[in-house]
UniProtKB/TrEMBL annotation, chain A:
<protein>
    <submittedName>
        <fullName>Uncharacterized protein</fullName>
    </submittedName>
</protein>
<feature type="transmembrane region" description="Helical">
    <location>
        <begin position="155"/>
        <end position="181"/>
    </location>
</feature>
<dbReference type="InterPro" id="IPR047928">
    <property type="entry name" value="Perm_prefix_1"/>
</dbReference>
<keyword id="KW-0472">Membrane</keyword>
<feature type="transmembrane region" description="Helical">
    <location>
        <begin position="193"/>
        <end position="212"/>
    </location>
</feature>
<keyword id="KW-1133">Transmembrane helix</keyword>
<feature type="transmembrane region" description="Helical">
    <location>
        <begin position="117"/>
        <end position="143"/>
    </location>
</feature>
<feature type="transmembrane region" description="Helical">
    <location>
        <begin position="74"/>
        <end position="97"/>
    </location>
</feature>
<keyword id="KW-0812">Transmembrane</keyword>
From TrEMBL, chain B:
<feature type="domain" description="Transcription regulator PadR N-terminal">
    <location>
        <begin position="14"/>
        <end position="86"/>
    </location>
</feature>
<dbReference type="InterPro" id="IPR005149">
    <property type="entry name" value="Tscrpt_reg_PadR_N"/>
</dbReference>
<dbReference type="InterPro" id="IPR036390">
    <property type="entry name" value="WH_DNA-bd_sf"/>
</dbReference>
<dbReference type="InterPro" id="IPR052509">
    <property type="entry name" value="Metal_resp_DNA-bind_regulator"/>
</dbReference>
<dbReference type="Pfam" id="PF03551">
    <property type="entry name" value="PadR"/>
</dbReference>
<protein>
    <submittedName>
        <fullName>PadR family transcriptional regulator</fullName>
    </submittedName>
</protein>
<dbReference type="InterPro" id="IPR036388">
    <property type="entry name" value="WH-like_DNA-bd_sf"/>
</dbReference>
Amino acid sequence: MGTDVIDRYVTDLGSRLQGSKKQVRDLITETRDSLEDATEAHLEQGLTETEARKKAVEEFGPVKEIANEYQAELAVAYGTRTLIWLAIILPLMHMAWEYGRMLLIGPWQDFGTPPPSWYLFIAKANDLTSGVASGVALVALVLGRILARKYDTKLLAKLAAAIALLAVGVVLLGNVAILVATAHLDVSRLMQSLPMSIASLISWTVIIRLGLLARRCLSCATIVG
Amino acid sequence: MKPDALRGHLDALLLATLDGKQLHGYAIIEALQQHSGGALDLPTGTVYPALRRLERAGHVTSDWSTVGGRKRRTYKLTPTGQKALHAERNAWREFTTVIDGVLGGGGKWAQT
């Protein structure tokens, strides 16, 4: 029994690709369509079914080379998607958290003694991280579109992954810093409101999820040869 | 024609093939081969990542539709792609004029 040459080629190609499931499926569907179209064209020229299918696969190119080019595109697409998420989610998450804090806890100054200057510095830096990370992601998206044809796709994929990782890293660092600083200053502030503790937990879940997306971007970009 | 010589021009060739038409992948490949008299000898699989690159640059858009009972992704030029094609054609004309001046029969290099 056997799988024919087109099935084997398509399966082999699919097994080498990593990225969004939908995008991989689209590329594989398109590949199969192209190979079937080429087979039909070769049949019309008088080749046998077996010869036509074999020739279609040969013309398509060595599977390793084609997979490499496909993977570069999948990696850029994954990087783009992650940067879009970062550009949208980070500022929204930060605004939601701050709005919730103002409603449920009120300004930090309302807690007796004003916080020391080092704490305010960390708090302000943390407030900026989401905006800066989101801005960097946005700029990277615009530049990525402008430079799409000017630079090698593999390089763009790696850059997108690096920017995504850096952006999430900065936000993570800001959140860890404010958490540690608050615990150092007055640990009870961390648990003074259950809804805010839940909001913080959601924020951490989102940051970790974005971190995993950025990590997968890098994985998609670095398996390209 | 060798694949390496073509790669640098693949984007322009694809834009030109899609000028005024909406085609699926294999139809683009067939049109490329037809217009070149079969001289364009590129692995056909390299056309698809190039089409995605053009889509990423905003020069083409794609849609899935059923053609002949099979699901196919069809591509067409965007207004930005039309402008890019215009620029590519101008650049190519300038390039061939310059090269032809040197390599063609009338240049001083030809006379030496």
